[in-house]
Amino acid sequence: MQNTKVAIVGLGTVGTGVARLLVEHGDRIARHAGRKLVLEHVAVNDLKKPRDIKLPSGMLSADIKRITSDPEISVVALLVGGLEPARSIMLALLDGGKDVVTANKALLAAHGPELFDRARELGRSIAFEASVAGGIPIIANISQCLSANEIQSIHAILNGTSNYILTQIEAHGTSYADAVRAAQGLGYAEADPTMDVDGSDAAQKLAILAHLAFGARVDWNDIPRQGIDTLDLADLRYAKELGYRIKLLAVAQLADGELELHVSPTLVKLGSPLAEVRGAYNAISVVGDAVGRVFFSGLGAGQMPTASAVVADIIDTVVGRSAITFRTLELWSKHIARVTARDYGRVAGRYYLRFSVADQPSVLAEIAGVLGKQNISIASVIQHEAEEGSQGVVPLMIMTHNTTEGAMGRAIEAIDRLAFMRGPSIRMRVRD
Amino acid sequence: MQNTKVAIVGLGTVGTGVARLLVEHGDRIARHAGRKLVLEHVAVNDLKKPRDIKLPSGMLSADIKRITSDPEISVVALLVGGLEPARSIMLALLDGGKDVVTANKALLAAHGPELFDRARELGRSIAFEASVAGGIPIIANISQCLSANEIQSIHAILNGTSNYILTQIEAHGTSYADAVRAAQGLGYAEADPTMDVDGSDAAQKLAILAHLAFGARVDWNDIPRQGIDTLDLADLRYAKELGYRIKLLAVAQLADGELELHVSPTLVKLGSPLAEVRGAYNAISVVGDAVGRVFFSGLGAGQMPTASAVVADIIDTVVGRSAITFRTLELWSKHIARVTARDYGRVAGRYYLRFSVADQPSVLAEIAGVLGKQNISIASVIQHEAEEGSQGVVPLMIMTHNTTEGAMGRAIEAIDRLAFMRGPSIRMRVRD
Q1: What is the mean pLDDT of residues A407-422?
Q2: DSSP reduced 3-state for A89
Q3: Fewest Cβ atoms closer than 10 Å to its Cβ: which of A87, B67, B76, B122?
Q4: Contact between chains at B148 and A29 (C-beta distance less than 8 A)
Q5: Pairing outcome for strands A426-431 and A348-358
Q6: What is the three-class DSSP state of B64?
Q7: Is the four-CA dihedral A11, A15, A17, A18 of positive or negative sign?
Q8: From CA A36, how far away is CA A318, in angstroms rounded?
Q9: Residue A297 pLDDT grade (very low, low, confident, very high; cuts 50, 70, 90)
């Protein structure tokens, strides 16, 4: 049986998982690759850092040149986070004639076009299954398995940290701060979890999926997004009362030839597959015009689920499948985008609204009047009696019929100026 | 852009769907294939049959030689059902130098080793994504995307007809016969639905998955199976009362180095992903040692979902990915099986039991005594009062703790001989 030498750059959580699979489970990998994969070298930044894996002596170094200058190493897993030095290392690896596998979604979201163009010029490939949704093979499914379809929509839970936090709060009444700490303790959330909970991480992944599924070229920074960091426990409770669960949903959806894109906490109907996704799981519901709806769920992060995706990419690269996919799909190429993003103001949908209002007559009439002026019609209303200690402030919940983000924004702006308003208005999208 | 000529044999439901995608959606296919796919010829058995698609004149013939003798046609979709002449046509296509794509699971389950060996000898490939679970790309996911894993278990709903019938009965109280007729009316069930409802179809698909995921070589005929054709509406009702839903589950699961394999109506916990799969949908829950649990659902049959899988395979074949996968995986090769099936008598599990007993004292004690002799311990019991017109016969439901199929068989045999028994005993597996 032939040997193929591979290398890893970065031995953090995911890198350690990848090394473990390569070293401890060579048999199964050889079976799928048709040859033996030999982990030849691992380059790290800090040689002194304690590691969770014992590698043969001499395998580890702080010298990336040991990889770039070794012509026998053909595939390298780049498992360094952040933008720099990850970008420079990727370019050095490509220049050194290596095919690259990466899990770094931030790098692709920021520098995809540059990196993919360079790989094409040099006749190399970049595989990135692990960059979106961890263990769910959504990249391969969209770019290969569903290739006979025009994809019509993607509705996805792409941030496991946020989903874990929401599940904790809802199931155990945990406070937001405690849930974040629990997520950090389990290794789901970073020391600084901002990108997870403010929707940025999900927007980066959505930008990659939108590119693959719709041929859209969007800067993730331009994707309208809201995170779970501003959610109120009360809304989780009221949503349930209305028959919904709140999920941080990333949406990409064709509408009359334009692409609706957004990341936002969304009321999802209880009992629907997306509503039932718990803990650190991710899920993706894809609709294609031929296949109909296909639903995927699995662990969106964590050492071994992510390593599973990286090693599958290494195998695909070694056997030559990645090169074919990379060449035929022309990812992030200079080709004109097939679809452009719709202005968020024109994106349609239903809404959940919560107003904190003074407990006095005609409140509902005035709010309904403002909504009516924007042609927003009310589907249902819940008003609870004032609770003790509420100082005459009551919550008023409204579910609307279909409207647009723009009309809703104008309505909320007008409502917030009404004299009986006692706090900020809350609005969230609703998915039926 | 290059052209590649493809052909179809068989223009039934799926063949028509495939022709439609190739003819009407050439753009998207060219985008994924990196070249234009030209449908060059369609061979059918009966030229006079009315067709749902209008093809350019001259494209349709009853002469398979127009395909086998045309050296420019490199890929052929074989979409003829049954074993013969499908087997002979497949061999003729391979001999003619064609790569083949098929949706015919019965053919693969019966003649896989012969056909795959022949393809290997001739340097050709066979792709068969559409043969299992219709629109869900489970073949690619198991054989490529999860290749870093040792698969530990597969729990799947693989027969959409059975699932549709169960959903109809449960949701609308439809009779079994009416539900079968409705399934036929919608094109889910064949004129003779026997293979669907008796578990054979699911067993054929499970044999293919067991081969891919575990390296098992099992004859589908040897897989213990029970269908939904013997189910009683009462059991659907009692299952719900106990917090479960009955699904026709196909299971392949490693247990101490052996493979447990069976197809049977199974009580699945309400709220779990498999329990919530409705109508003609299929679903597959796969556990891998690295990735954890990954769940897939989608339409398991029907014209366009199946055509979606066939066309994805055609694209994979044209670009060269299929050849790589076919070569590296050595499917159905003469290699020794990695795992053998466990004798069904030793397969463990919990059970739901329903006995029709005379309404008299000591019945439960005697039944519990027999179960105890087989070391089967009782988890819960439901006994309802005799209904009017029941002539003193009452149903007694028992949920057991873990036991084996063998012990359960012996217990049921003994129980069926007890004097107070008034009808056949029902037993079903339980999945928590």
Answers
A1: 95
A2: helix
A3: B122
A4: yes
A5: antiparallel
A6: coil
A7: negative
A8: 10
A9: very high
Count the helix, strand and coil residues of chain A and give each as a percent rounded to the nearest 5: 40, 25, 35
Please list the alpha-helical segments (H only) found in B215-320.
Answer: 233-241, 303-319
Residues 6+ apart with CB under 8 A from B403: B348, B349, B350, B351, B374, B375, B376, B377
Sign of CA dihedral A199, A204, A209, A210: positive
Tokens of B207: 């044999």
A407: enclosing H helix or E strand: helix A405-415
- Residues B160-175: what's their mean pLDDT? 92
C-alpha–C-alpha distance, residues B260 and B223, integer Å: 9
DSSP of A234-275, one letter per residue?
HHHHHHHHTTEEEEEEEEEEEETTEEEEEEEEEEEETTSTTT
**Pairwise pLDDT comparison (A271 vs B209), residue with the higher score:** B209
The H-or-E segment that residue B116 falls in is: helix B105-122
Residue B9 has phi, psi (to 5 degrees) of -115, 120
What pLDDT was estimated at residue A259?
A: 97
Question: Which of A321, A322, A330 to substitute to test the interface with B, most B CBs within 10 Å?
Answer: A321
Distance of alpha carbon B219 from alpha carbon B208, whole angstroms: 9
Task: Domains for chain A: give ranges and CATH numbers.
Answer: 3-134+305-329 (3.40.50.720), 147-299 (3.30.360.10), 347-431 (3.30.70.260)
Residue B332 predicted with pLDDT over 80: no
Q: Which of B148, B291, B312 sits opposite A145 (nearest CB)?
A: B312
A21 vs B: CB within 8 A: yes
Q: Is B334 a catalytic residue?
A: no
Residue of B nearest to A314 (CA): B148
The 10s digit of each residue's pLDDT in B294-329 is 999 999 988 999 999 999 999 999 999 999 999 887
Nearest to A213, CA basis, from A337, A360, A46: A337
The 3-state DSSP class for residue B58 equals coil
Distance CA A379, CA A381 (A): 7
Residues whose CB falls within 8 Å of the CB of residue B67, separated by 6 or more in sequence, listed in order = B7, B9, B41, B43, B73, B76, B93, B96, B98
Contacts of A328 in chain B (CB under 8 A): 32-34, 319
Phi-psi region of A102 (alpha: psi -120 to 50; beta: other; left: phi over 0): beta
Residue A389: the pLDDT is: 75
CB of B297 within 8 Å of a chain A CB? The answer is yes
Measure the CA dihedral A248/A252/A256/A257, to 10°. 160
**Which residues in chain A are contacts of B311 at CB distance < 8 A?**
147-148, 290
Calculate helix-pair angle for B303-319, B13-24, nearest 10 degrees: 60
Judge: A293–B315 Cβ closer than 8 Å, yes or no.
no
ipTM for this model: 0.94
Neighbours of B53 (CB within 10 A): 15
DSSP state of A394: E
Taking the C-alpha atoms of residue A244 and residue A267, their distance in angstroms, rounded to an integer, is 5
